[in-house]
Write a structure and sequence with these properties.
Elements (H helix, E strand, L loop, with lengths): L4 H9 L7 H6 L5 E5 L2 E4 L4 E4 L2 H4 L8 H13 L11 H13 L13 E7 L2 H18 L7 E5 L8 H5 L4 H4 L10 E3 L28 H15 L4 E6 L3 E2 L5 E2 L4 H11 L3 E5 L14 H4 L6 E4 L11 E6 H5 L21 H15 L1 H18 L8 E7 L2 E6 L15 H11 L2 E2 L6 E4 L7 H18 L1
Parallel strand pairs: 3-15, 5-6, 5-7, 7-10, 10-11
Antiparallel strand pairs: 1-2, 2-3, 4-12, 8-9, 11-12, 13-14, 14-16
Helix pairs in contact: 4-13, 5-13, 9-10, 14-16, 15-16
Bound molecules: pyridoxal-5'-phosphate.
Pyridoxal-5'-phosphate binds next to helix 6.
Length: 469
C-alpha cells in the first residue's frame, strides 16, 4: 500500500486520540475520502465496510440524502448562532422531539421521573459532565447533601473531561489523572464472563445464558449503599451505561440487573444518570433507549454520538422539571446554571438531528434495526468454532467478540500482544474497518447495513482470527 500525500501530512502534523503515535508514524494510514451507506472509500479508491459506525456514531449510513439535505438547507440560512441569550428554530424543535422521544411507550412505574428539559452540548463527555454538575448542585440546593458524592460501575467510561474521568473506572485510561480527579465509589460490574461469582465452566455461548450465580453483583450494590448510609451519607447520583458498558469491552448486562440496581438507587433517594451516549437511539436494545428495556427512566439521560445521525458533534442531557426548577430564581440570587459551550444548540447539528430522528422513528428505520440485530446474531453463530473466542455477546445492534488464548480456561491474551489490533488490521486488509477494545472486537455497523455486508463482515472477522491468532 502506497502512502498518500495526505497520510504524509497527517503523520507530520497530527496527534490522534487513543493512539500510540510511535506506531502510527511507522504505519501506512488508511486515508478515508468518501462514504455512502455502510461503505467507505479511501483516497486510492479501496472499499471498506464501516463496521464500527465511525466510532459508534453513524446510525443511518454515510451521505444519507435526507440528512445531507437538512444540513445543506440549514447551511443556506445560517451555520451557527449563539445559544447564550438567543434562540434558533432547529434547536428548539429538536428539544421538543427529544422530550417526546424519551417518553417511555409502555406503562412505567408512576414513580419514575418525567424528562422535560434539554441541555445541549457538544459530545458524549460534555453530556455526562453536565449531568454530574446538575446532580451535584441539585443535591446541594435541595439539602440532600452538602458534599455530594457519586457512584458508578467498575469499568465505567463516561468521557474524557475531568468530571467524566472522575466517574470512570478504567485504570488504563484514568489512573494517570487521579491527582486531578474527585473521588467516586464503584460497584462490581455485572460482567458474567469474568465474574468472580460465576461458578459455571466456560461454554460455547454468551456467558449470560449459562452463568451459575445468585446475582451477587446486585447484593454488592445493595451493600455499597448500606455502607454509605452507615457513614451517614448518601449518593447524589448513580451513573450507569445501560445494557452495555462500551469502552470497558462491551460488557453486556444480564437481564434484570439494571432494573434491580435502579430500584436500589431509588430506594436510597439517589438520582440515576443514564449514559446512553453509545447505547441510545436504538443502538443497543429493542427500545429507543436501553434504560427503558429495564423499565428505568433516569433523572438525567445523556445522548450524543448518534444524535445527529453521526454527522456533526452534538449532545444532549435531558432532565426533569424538578432539577430545572432548582436553578430558577431572581437574577441576583445567581442560581443560574453557569455552564455552556460556544457551539451549544448549533443549528446545523440540530437540523441533522431532526432528520436523523425522523429516520429513526420511521417504520423502515425500525425494520432495519430489527433485521440488523437478527443478522448479527445469525451470522456470528459460526464464530463459536474458533478456539480463540471466549465470549460472544450481543445487545441490540452491537456485537462483541472476546478473544482469548484458551477458551476452556478463559485465559486472556496480554494487552501487549495486541491480539485485537492484529485481528482488526487483518480485517482492514479484507475491506472491513473496526477498532478493538483490548481483546474485544466490536461489530456495530450502521442500521442500513445489508445482509451481504453483515456476512462479509463476519467472514472477514473469522478469516482474520484464523490467520492472525
Ligand atoms: C458510554 C460513553 N460515554 C461517554 C463517551 C464519551 O463520548 P465522546 O467521545 O463523544 O466525548 C463515550 C465514548 O465512547 C461512551 O462510549
Amino acid at each position: 500500500m502506497n502512502k498518500t500525500a495526505t497520510a504524509t501530512l497527517d503523520q507530520k502534523y497530527l496527534w490522534h486520540p487513543f493512539t500510540q503515535m510511535r506506531d502510527w508514524r511507522k504505519s501506512t494510514p488508511i486515508v478515508l475520502d468518501r462514504g455512502k451507506g455502510s461503505q467507505l472509500w479511501d483516497e486510492q479508491g479501496r472499499e471498506y465496510i464501516d463496521a464500527n459506525s465511525s466510532i459508534w456514531t453513524n446510525l443511518h449510513g454515510h451521505s444519507h440524502p435526507k440528512i445531507n439535505r437538512a444540513i445543506r438547507n440549514q447551511l443556506d440560512k445560517v451555520a451557527h448562532v449563539s445559544a447564550l441569550g438567543l434562540a434558533n428554530a432547529p434547536a428548539a424543535k429538536l428539544g421538543e422531539r427529544l422530550v417526546r422521544l424519551v417518553k417511555p411507550r409502555t406503562r412505567f412505574p408512576k414513580t419514575e421521573p418525567r424528562l422535560a428539559k434539554v441541555f445541549f452540548s457538544d459530545d458524549g463527555s460534555t453530556s455526562t459532565e453536565v449531568a454530574i454538575k446538575l446532580s451535584y448542585e441539585f443535591a446541594r440546593r435541595t439539602g440532600r447533601s452538602r458534599k455530594p458524592r457519586f457512584l458508578s460501575v467498575d469499568g465505567a467510561y463516561h468521557g474524557d473531561t475531568v468530571g467524566a474521568v472522575s466517574a470512570g473506572h478504567i485504570n488504563l485510561f484514568h489512573k494517570a489523572y487521579s491527582g486531578l480527579m474527585f473521588k467516586t465509589d464503584k460497584v462490581l460490574s455485572p460482567h458474567c464472563y469474568r465474574c468472580p461469582f460465576n461458578k459455571a465452566k466456560p461454554e460455547r455461548a454468551d456467558a449470560r445464558n449459562y452463568r451459575k450465580c445468585n446475582m451477587e453483583c446486585i447484593d454488592k450494590v445493595e451493600q455499597t449503599f448500606e455502607q454509605r448510609k452507615k457513614r451517614g451519607g448518601n449518593y447524589a447520583a448513580f451513573l450507569v451505561e445501560p445494557a452495555m458498558q462500551g469502552p470497558a469491552g462491551m460488557i453486556a448486562q444480564p437481564k434484570g440487573w439494571l432494573s434491580k440496581v435502579g430500584a436500589i438507587a431509588r430506594a436510597n433517594g439517589t438520582q440515576i444518570i443514564a449514559d446512553e451516549v453509545m447505547t441510545g437511539l436504538g443502538r443497543a436494545s429493542d427500545r429507543m433507549f436501553a434504560s427503558h428495556s429495564e423499565k428505568i427512566q433516569p433523572d438525567y439521560l445523556c445522548i450524543a454520538k448518534g444524535l445527529t445521525g453521526g454527522y456533526l458533534p452534538m449532545a444532549a442531557t435531558l432532565t426533569t422539571q424538578d432539577v430545572f426548577n432548582a436553578f430558577l430564581g431572581e437574577y441576583q440570587e445567581f442560581k443560574t446554571f453557569f455552564h455552556g459551550h460556544s457551539f451549544t444548540g448549533n443549528p446545523l447539528g440540530a437540523a441533522a438531528g431532526l432528520a436523523s430522528l425522523e429516520l429513526l422513528n420511521s417504520k423502515s428505520g425500525a425494520k432495519q434495526r430489527k433485521n440488523l440485530a437478527a443478522r448479527l446474531k445469525k451470522y456470528s453463530e459460526q464464530l463459536w468454532t474458533h478456539e480463540k473466542i471466549g465470549d460472544i455477546r450481543q445487545s441490540g445492534c452491537v456485537l462483541a467478540v472476546e478473544l482469548v488464548r484458551n477458551w476452556k480456561t478463559r485465559e486472556p491474551f496480554e494487552l501487549a500482544e495486541q491480539a485485537g489490533i492484529r485481528v482488526c488490521n487483518a480485517m482492514a486488509k479484507r475491506g472491513v474497518l473496526t477498532r478493538p477494545i483490548g481483546n474485544v472486537i466490536v461489530i456495530m455497523p450502521p442500521f442500513c447495513t445489508t445482509k451481504v455486508q453483515v456476512e462479509k463482515t463476519i467472514s472477514a472477522l473469522s478469516n482474520s482470527i484464523a490467520e492472525t491468532l
